[in-house]
Write a structure and sequence with these properties.
Layout lengths: L1 H13 L20 H5 L20 E5 H6 L15 E5 L7 E5 L9 E5 L2 E2 L8 H4 L8 E8 L3 H4 L6 E7 L5 E7 L3 E12 L3 E12 L13 E12 L2 E12 L13 E16 L4 E21 L1 H4 L7 E21 L4 E23 L14 E8 L14 E11 L4 E12 L3 E13 L4 E12 L3 H5 L5 E2 L7 E13 L3 E20 L7 E21 L4 E10 L10 E11 L2 E10 L2 E3 L10 E3 L2 E11 L4 E8 L7 E3 L7 E3 L4 E9 L2
Parallel strand pairs: 4-7, 22-25
Antiparallel strand pairs: 1-6, 2-3, 4-5, 6-7, 8-9, 8-35, 9-10, 10-11, 11-12, 12-13, 13-14, 14-15, 15-16, 16-17, 16-18, 18-19, 19-20, 20-21, 21-23, 23-24, 24-25, 25-26, 26-27, 27-28, 28-31, 29-30, 31-32, 32-35, 33-34
């Protein structure tokens, strides 16, 4: 990373660095959720300018902290189940890691860009954010913004079918503790203080632990232990943040098998330093330097000792001991040329690398330097081998640079246009041009029509380019996947209701898929061989039934068959009643039936999961103006259901059952 480090030093010398993360306009009061707040949450993720739900030129969904708390979820990824076009389930490899379904696509390779305070979590080895950051507690979150659709024109690779930006709390003073079923405990504290000279400090700590529920008659559990810490501050135009996250997920499912010996630990270190310089009344520059390091230590059951006839050793488990790093410099400009023309522009320089590629295994032959399953090579348990020659090709740099420009032009009081383009080049891999164009027309004070077009891409990751094991061989000639998306949006908003209707068309090209190397289909490689299209409709609504009651609803229906057993129709509903010191929210998630036929001459049966509802919610009782007790329920009626995953032998992945919890929340100055 020497070249980028030198550039950053020059940038620091020439111009001060700038602030990145969005700040709360006022101190958030978690006890005053109102219907008006649901309607008036602005969004900046889609344009890097502050827009209303009516004016934003993208299909978006926004949750503030009180909404999130009222839905009864613990993990930010679970919010996807209340977003049109999105769903989150558990899948193969590490089964307790969240997996995204996005507008009918479930390929599990990083088609949603996940960010925390504007810093990307998707990395170069697997591409998915959730492998390295599977649990983001809601206790540290101020707001979550979703783009439903392409975002590469601003954010580059992985902003393919959607973007999720998690904005952490920076002006809260709050303590919460909780207890839940299955040995669950929760504790969080948010601290902030205002200093002199427009300076402030903040810190958020969230801890979650559970022993997990039983699966397969007590064969395995799905335990969780997660620690999430953010510390940051602001001194006039300078801001900074340091973040640490550690998550442990064992037993449940790893590498397509269940075992109490399965292990999965991820650990992340991140830092952001930024400065905002106001060069003139109309021109503002934001300089940002960010660094993130991802670490993973994982091992899953491949085959039992009995199945391979081992008498003096044990089961064969294997998995990655990998690390990736990303050092990035961003320059973002904001220029208001006139009352009718506004420009955003920027550059990005990134040095990303997979810096470690070891293996965790129960068998290893020191003589040949490889995994050889014989009694004499048993290591007595899972051990880490960092100098593992078959993984050497994974140690690759992903240096890249990008530039973007976007304009917002107001034709008149009713019609506006957004036009932009971003160019990305990943050294020695691929380059892409990502355009976007949108027209927003206010028909009258309550009706808005939008026509939106955008293109997005996903660059292949190290695992696809350089894998080298007994099953898959990488393909260094892979190019980026890309999608062309057209959306027609009707937005309606008055004092008592708001809804969006979105018709979308996704043309997906050059998708990377596994293809067999030989006729026996025992070994595979990756290739850009898959193309398809996906059309559908999304509806999102907020309706005020009375001064104390309102409803939030989301519905999605695809017109085409989804990929890999995803859901063709699904919806969510949340009903909130609030009066004086009591607030109750009931929610329901519905998914239509799923059917996948078994391969010809396969010994396994077809996969079939009937449609189902998942009921949850919260009940909050305010003890005084600063404290409350909250009861939370997820999957209240303990619905037993599975989700299809194509890489499991029978396709079935059990999902979580009921989780009841009680929480005490206290605000303080």
């Amino acid at each position: 990373m020497k070249n980028l480090s030198a550039l950053i030093k020059v940038a620091l010398f020439i111009t001060p660095l700038t602030a990145v993360a969005e700040q709360e306009a006022t101190s958030s009061d978690l006890y005053q959720l109102s219907f008006e707040e649901l309607l008036n949450v602005n969004v900046s993720i889609a344009t890097k300018t502050d827009e209303t739900r009516a004016s934003v030129p993208s299909s978006i969904t926004v949750f503030n902290s009180e909404q999130i708390n009222s839905l009864g979820v613990d993990n930010v990824y679970d919010l996807m189940n209340f977003v049109p076009g999105f769903q989150s389930t558990r899948g193969d490899w590490v089964g307790a890691v969240p997996k995204e379904h996005t507008r009918g696509v479930y390929l599990d390779t990083g088609h949603v860009l996940v960010m925390i305070d504007g810093q990307r979590l998707n990395e170069s080895s697997f591409g998915k954010a959730s492998v390295y950051t599977p649990f983001i507690p809601i206790d540290i979150v101020y707001k979550v913004e979703f783009i439903r659709g392409p975002g590469s024109a601003l954010y580059g690779s992985n902003a393919f079918l959607g973007v999720m930006n998690v904005i952490t709390k920076k002006q809260s003073n709050q303590l919460s503790i909780g207890y839940a079923e299955h040995g669950g405990v929760q504790a969080a504290i948010n601290l902030s203080t205002q200093l002199a000279d427009e300076s402030e400090l903040y810190a958020n700590v969230g801890f979650n632990k559970r022993s997990g529920e039983d699966y397969f008659s007590g064969t395995v559990k799905d335990p969780l232990e997660s620690l999430f810490i953010t510390v940051g501050g602001k001194a006039q135009a300078l801001s900074w943040q340091i973040r640490y996250n550690r998550t442990q997920l064992d037993e449940f499912l790893n590498l397509a098998r269940y075992s109490r010996e399965n292990e999965h630990k991820s650990e992340n270190y991140a830092a952001i330093l930024a400065y905002q310089s106001q060069l003139s009344e109309r021109l503002k520059l934001t300089h940002t330097v960010s660094f993130i390091e991802h670490n993973i230590d994982s091992a899953g059951l491949i085959v039992t000792a009995d199945e391979i006839g081992i008498t003096q050793g044990g089961d064969f488990l294997v998995g990655p001991a990998w690390q990736s790093k990303d050092l990035t410099y961003n320059l973002d400009g904001d220029f208001e040329q006139s009352n009718t023309l506004h420009w955003n522009f920027g550059i990005e320089l990134s040095e990303e690398e997979q810096s470690k590629a070891g293996v965790r295994t129960t068998y290893y032959d020191q003589t040949v330097g490889d995994i050889v399953i014989y009694n004499r090579n048993y290591l007595g348990g899972v051990r880490t081998i960092m100098e593992y020659a078959p993984f050497y090709p994974l140690l690759q740099d992903f240096d890249s640079y990008a530039g973007y420009v976007q304009s917002k032009y107001l034709f008149n009081d009713r019609l506006s246009m957004f036009a932009g383009v971003r160019y990305d080049e990943v050294k020695d891999i691929d380059d892409k041009l990502s355009p976007r164009l949108a027209f927003v027309y206010s028909y009258n004070s309550v009706n808005t029509l939008k026509l939106q077009y955008g293109e997005s891409f996903r660059t292949p990751v190290s695992n696809e380019l350089n894998s080298n094991d007994d099953v898959t061989t990488g393909n260094s000639n892979l190019t980026s996947e890309y999608v062309k998306t057209t959306e027609l949006v009707w937005h309606y908003q008055d004092e008592s209701k708001q809804f969006d209707v979105v018709l979308f068309d996704n043309e997906l090209e050059d998708f990377i898929n596994l293809v067999p190397i030989d006729d026996e289909q025992a070994e595979f490689t990756f290739d850009n061989v898959f193309e398809t299209s996906m059309q559908g409709i999304e509806i999102n609504a907020n309706i005020n039934l009375s001064s104390t009651t309102w409803v939030q609803a989301a519905y999605t229906q695809l017109f085409d068959e989804p990929l890999n057993g995803s859901f063709k129709k699904f919806s969510a509903l949340a009903f909130t009643y609030k009066k004086e010191s009591v607030e109750v929210t009931l929610n329901a998630i519905w998914r239509d039936s799923t059917f996948m036929s078994a391969p010809p001459e396969s010994p396994i049966d077809d996969f079939e999961q009937p449609s189902y509802y998942l009921i949850g919610g919260t009940a909050s009782f305010h003890l005084d103006d600063s404290a409350k007790i909250q009861l939370k329920a997820e999957n209240l009626f303990d619905k037993k259901f599975t989700v299809f995953d194509p890489r499991l032998i029978d396709g079935h992945v059990p999902q979580q059952g009921r989780n009841l919890s009680i929480q005490y929340i206290k605000n303080f100055n």
